[in-house]
Amino acid sequence: MRKRNIDKETQRMPGSLEPLDTAVQIPYHFRCPISLELMRDPVTVCTGQTYDRSSIESWVATGNTTCPVTRAPLSDFTLIPNHTLRRLIQDWCVANRSLGIERIPTPKQPADPALVRTLLAQAASNSSTSHSRLSALRRLRGLARDSDKNRSVISASNAPDTLLPIVFAADKEREPDELTHESLALLVMLPLVESQCESVASQPDRVTFLASLLSHSSIEVRVNAAALIEIVAAGTRSVEHRILIGNADGVMEGITRILSNPLAYPRALKVGIKALFALCLVKQSRHKAVSAGAVDALIDRLADFEKCDAERALATVELLCRIPEGCAAFAEHALTVPLLVKIILKISDRATEYAAGALLSLCSASKQLQRDAVAAGVVTQLLLLVQSDCTERAKRKAQLLLKLLRDSWPDDSIANSDDFGCSDVSPF
């Protein structure tokens, strides 16, 4: 009888835990009635039943309005943490540690919507002291750091509409202070809808204010200002407003300086390239980026980007190569061609496509750059590319580049073989 019960109760542990030994029996009341797995964050619903938080939240999110066990209607969707049961589960895990069971961590409780609304009201109240408002903002920022769910709760309380006036009040009512910086730091952790982005992008004084923050003595303030510029530029559909942001005095210069920050502050590199890419999507802003020194910043930091950011950086390089001044600036940097050649087939399909596109623009503009590319080994790289599983766009760019470089190939180059042809290739 006991053997049958053990077999029935034996299940896999959740998350990263290994399967339980067959001699271990999880107590029935430690299991979630929905997932049948050990509960990590037990919560009790209004019917008195206890479930694992993630399971009951998924149940409700799919449209269910009844208790899974009792089938009684859930008149209140409040989830009350069952701390007693959670501690019992943790004690059981510790007692069975020798059997390979890890103690579940104490979960952080999600933000209470009522508390969030109270803190936002406190932060927005001009009748409250600066200390009180700052304390509320810091508590909200701490909650936002804890989890995606908390950020969703804060956003659902219309936090951006509360925070935007606080950030930009410094432009007219007071000098930028901790209240400005703390509200800005929280704001960039939240998504903004288009109307909120437009409320910034359409007002030159707000754009000018953000540009001034890009020269602040604090690296965190500078990076947060750049983050808001990126969010706003990416979130507005108005080309005119995006041009306004990109061409505002100090914006491109400030973002370029952020890219040059020490690697000890990696967020600067990530935010800087996102902002630069968002602004360079508009052709009318690219000349400003080149004038601000973006070309040197991109090439000098190209090896330091992580995969996703490297793709974004290479896409920006290709965009800047499409204007004459950008092409000329990249041509003057001795590392441009060798780095782009080296990147082909090394990072990702997208990175390869952007690198090939940038090389195509550069080599189309200069015979010397064609010779430099060949000397750097681009022919072999391109031949491998057209035979790879890379994107069709990347292959088309590679074929066009091979055709362009044919006159620059050495006499004994493998690329002179008649086995490869690249005529009649469309660039689109």
UniProtKB/TrEMBL annotation:
GO biological process terms on file: defense response; protein ubiquitination
MF GO annotations: ubiquitin protein ligase activity
The enzyme's E.C. designation: 2.3.2.27
Keywords, comma-separated and alphabetical: Transferase, Ubl conjugation pathway
Pathway annotation: Protein modification; protein ubiquitination
Family annotation (InterPro entries): ARM-like, ARM-type_fold, ARM_PUB, PUB22/23/24-like, RING-Ubox_PUB, Ubox_domain, Znf_RING/FYVE/PHD
Transmembrane segments: none
Keyword Lyase: no
Record-annotated U-box domain positions: 25-99
Catalytic activity entry: S-ubiquitinyl-[E2 ubiquitin-conjugating enzyme]-L-cysteine + [acceptor protein]-L-lysine = [E2 ubiquitin-conjugating enzyme]-L-cysteine + N(6)-ubiquitinyl-[acceptor protein]-L-lysine
Record function comment: Functions as an E3 ubiquitin ligase.
Protein name: U-box domain-containing protein
